[in-house]
Structure formats: structure tokens, C-alpha cells
Amino acid sequence: MEPTSRRVPGADDNEIHVLEWSTDGVPLVLVHGFGNDAHIWDEFAPLVAPHYRVVAVDLRGHGDSDHDPERRYQWNDHVRDLEAVTEALGIDRLVLVGHSLGGRTSLLFAGRNTERMAGLVVVDTGPEHDPRGQIRIRQEVEGRTVTGDGSLASIEEYEAVLAHNYPAAQPAAIKRMARSELKQREDGRYVRKADPAFMSGVASVSADEQEAYEEETRKKLWHACEVVPCPTLVVRGAASDILSAEIADKMVDDVLKNGTLAVIAQAAHSVMTDNPEGFNQAVSEFVLG
């Protein structure tokens, strides 16, 4: 099964790239995490495509979507894109599946569009993040450039970078990510598709600025958890350094109206690359049950 590649209007006159895996059924929209792209779902999407209208989105500044010339990469910008994309595709009621950055975006979208939600899957993220994981991500972003201009000599060179940053990921996932996240320049070298302004912006924010922004985001995300009425699956990697067991339990037991928790063994933050079989089984059972 191969998806159809499309570009549709997002917010702010940006075009957003999507992969359409199927065209019939209730829409199921997949939203990737920071630094990844729509192909992160390539193993999962074919499993549910026969049962849903499956669409995987490249967030602005990622994959084959436009880079925003004004560097508008806040949470609200991604939510507005998701609203624009679903409108352009004629999607009203939907199931959302989001990982990390995409998970928070999906949760905020769901909080703003409660009547449109048929289901929600939030993968290894929540209103509060473990500081250990936030520090790790900053360090990874700072260390991703290999030369002064951020270019690499080969795809294999980037595979080595990814293998370091995703130590638990399956080799097939590393190879797929390396192929889809790079583009080749005219001089033959490779650069990441993700907007350097977005990537460097994460590393350049001071700790105090990051904490203030995080506090505001926490309030909005906990509110979203309170108001989302649809069945919601929270997926946590058992070895995650982003979503703690305590926060995952609080989301499901105390705040979400209709929440369920799935803890995936042998997986850290990038659950779908670390243990694809465990991830696919848990999420498939939820959306197909």
C-alpha cells in the first residue's frame, strides 16, 4: 500500500503536505512529533487504512510542508494549521492520533473542537513533561549539525546521527526516517527538510523563557484534558523520559472523562519506532475496537 501525496492550504498562506492512505470511512488523522514527518506512521497507517480514511500530516516547517517565513511555530500555529487542513479536506468529525509535538497539538485541537472529536490518541506526551527529556531534546537539536552549514555527505551519515538520538529504535525505522527527513542539494550533499529556524529556535530559547512558555502551555493542556469528551488513549513508552508514569496516570485516572492508558514495553519516547509491534497492537485495538 502506497499513500497519495497532496499539498493543501494551511493557516497563514502556508501549504501543508499530507499523505492520504485511504479515502473512505471516518477520518483518522496522524500528526508526527518534533523533527519527524508524516512517514513516521508508515508502519501503522496501512493497518487501519482499510477501516478509516487515513491522512498523515507534515506539520509546518517539517517534511514537505512549507517553512513559515515569519517563523511562526508556536502551539497555536500548528493547531490552526490542523484546523485549516481538515477544512480543506472536508473533514468534520475525526479521530486524531498525535505523537509528542503532534500529541500536544492534537490535544489542544481536541480541546478547541470538542464536538468534532470521535476519538483521540495522545502518544508519549501530556500537559507536563519530565525535565530530563526536555534537556535531552535540547542537546540532540544542538548536536544534529555535522558541518557548519548543517549538511551531510550521505544518508548513511544521518542514519548514524539518528541511531545515536534514537538508541532503542528498530533499524528499519532509522533507515526510513533518514530517507524521508533529508533532501539532496545540487552539490550532492544532504540537508534536513525541517526548517533550521524552527530547529535552532528550540535550542536558542533561554531556560527561563522556556519555563514561562511551558507553564502557559501546561494550563491550556490540562484544560483540554478536562473538556475532551471522546474516548482517549494515552500511550506511554515504559522507558520514556518525557511522559512520567505519574502524569500519565493523572491524565487517565483524574482528568480525562473517558481515558485509557497503554504502556508499551521496550519503548522510550519514540514509541512507534522503538516497539512498532507493541504500538501498533495497542492503538489498533483502541481505534478498531
Q: How would you describe what is shown here?
A:
It is a single chain. The protein is α/β, with parallel strands linked by helices. It has a single domain, classed as 3-Layer(aba) Sandwich (Rossmann fold), CATH 3.40.50. It is 42% helix and 18% strand. It contains eleven helices and ten strands. It has helices at residues 45-48, 75-88, 101-112, 131-142, 155-165, 171-181, 196-204, 207-227, 245-255, 271-274, 276-288, and strands at 4-9, 15-20, 27-31, 53-57, 94-99, 117-123, 182-184, 190-192, 232-237, 259-264. It has an eight-stranded mixed sheet with strand order 1-2-4-3-5-6-9-10, sandwiched between helices. Helix 3 crosses helix 8 (207-227). The longest helix has 21 residues, at 207-227. The radius of gyration is 18 Å and the shape is globular. The two termini are 23 Å apart.
